[in-house]
Amino acid sequence: MAGPAVEFRVLGELAVQAGGREIDPGPHKRRLVLALLLCRANSVVSTDLLTEAVWGDEPPRTARKNLQVHVSALRALLPPASPGGAPRIVHRPAGYQLRVEPDELDLLCFERLVHTARKASGLAAEQAGQAASGVSEHAARLLDEALALWRGDMLADLGDSGVIREEADRWSLRRLAVCEDWAETSVALGRHTVVADRLADTVRAHPLRERLLAVHMTALHRSGRRTEALACYDEYRKLLAAELGLDVGPAVTAVHRSLLASAAASPAPLAEWARERPRRGAAPRTRLLLPAALDDFTGRSAETAQLLDAVGTRRRSVQLSGPLGVGKTSLAVHVAHRMAPGFPDGCLLIRMRRPDGTPRPVPSLLAELRRITGTNMPPPVDEDDAVALWQAELLDRALLLVLDDAPDAASVRPLLPGSGDSAAVVTTRCGLPGIGSPHRVELGPYPLRDAVEFLGGLVGAHRVLADRAAAERIVAAVGLLPLTIRLYGGKLAALRHVSLPAYASRLERGTAILDELATADPAVRPLLAGWWRDLPAPARDTLAALGRLPGPLFTLADAAEAMALPEDHAYRLLELLLERRELDSQLAEVTAHTTLYELPLLSHLYAREQAMSARA
After folding, report:
1. I need a labelling partner for 206 at 20 to 30 A (CA). Which of 59, 391, 471, 565 fits?
2. Spans in the chain with pLDDT lower than 70
3. What is 190-280's CATH number, 3.40.50.360, 1.25.40.10, 3.60.15.10, 1.10.10.10?
4. Are strands 288-289 and 423-428 parallel, antiparallel or unpaired?
């Protein structure tokens, strides 16, 4: 039988072949358009999403026209869709649709093979004897064929696009789940050595994947490599304790017990353990998985009371927002420790961003939640299924989630508890209007009294009492922010020979604050860089202009002069920053012209640096 007239490949670098010859899709931006259309083959992809995939958050004014040019070029380049020779790419009211037959795209072939294999596996579970073995053989072969379609990391040549990277991450998780299916099916068929050898690199690449480790240990043991299997367990146990402070989960524990018992005939594979789970009742209880509470936590009594009432008493999810350095995470952790007795299934903190400040994809967050809460089910293939399973798991739990540094509503919405006894505290740098109407708590800088008290706890109350005016100058110079007070207070505590007035004078010069902050805590600058990168281009431009002002307090007239714009235009840009919580306004006055605006200190200093860099 002849193959398809055109072949699209995304399970590796992007490739197109027609009539046995390679087709070059064209320049990089055009390849990004084609790649996203292929990832969502036969579905309408919105113009906005295509624009984001190609230009990120800084599209040119001609983006829509340029997108039309790229689509037109791809239409001319690609063979027509069959049957009937219709155009391969069609325009729809909401965007564009790329029409692909199931055998023309490796991604669709992968899905078809996996679906057929899982149907075969389901049939095997209902049968016995030789018939079941035959069906399992068929399932293992189909899964092997599906995995063989992957030529490397998905769209590895286009990973500079955040949208493409998210698609690749989602499909990579699906590939990993299929690899686990293949391994378990193959172990059940007695192919222990093949599984043990083929999984070695995958386990090294995903050391915290419990289901993968369980089947790998089983395969090693049944291959006569019991010592290696025990070593795998020991490495995993140490890694889990060091990285997350967690105990080994029940799947790997079951295999380990079998190894210790030398039950060579049946070392408790994952499938057997999973069959037993429904008879065991509820999933294992989660421990207190929070950072340690701060012994010197100061102030925030009103905000603490609001959180205790909304979350602890009324079981409402709360959105805790405020600028970088204002102490959102510290307050959330402080309150979570106080509410822990009311959440018997546990309290845990999930970091919504990677260390470099980029948002984590939702499938990664769901996978972490399933693992650390003991949600004992194989990872779902589809993200919608994963969300549904997570929500179902929460229904009979009393669990408190701290979702820390949420980048946007789309990341938070799938994780939030619905009805039931679970609740969440979501910390975010700006408001998240897209997550319904949770209770909102706005967190600002410390009041002067609390800031001085906090400083006294760090440097010694006697030093503050001896010169309170200098202490007030110090905390004011660093913006009354808990983060900056903690870092500079820590430095001052070590500099016993430096007087408070001398230190205040040094800080009031302002020019070296970020540099001193970097030496005190190197993680601060990456956080600021991530914040800056996440801003929309108009907000960045406005902040860069405001960074040229001498201080963080200014009027509308000051802003208009800095931006070289009429006041009505400048006011609209300030409103954009107010809506994003990047700017505060002191509302003692009633008109835009007399209102005093304030930028958080760290935002102002970093914006000033960016403005100076752009000018240099």
Report:
1. 391
2. 1-4, 82-84, 121-135, 262-287, 374-382, 419, 434, 436-438, 510-524, 586-594, 615-616
3. 1.25.40.10
4. unpaired
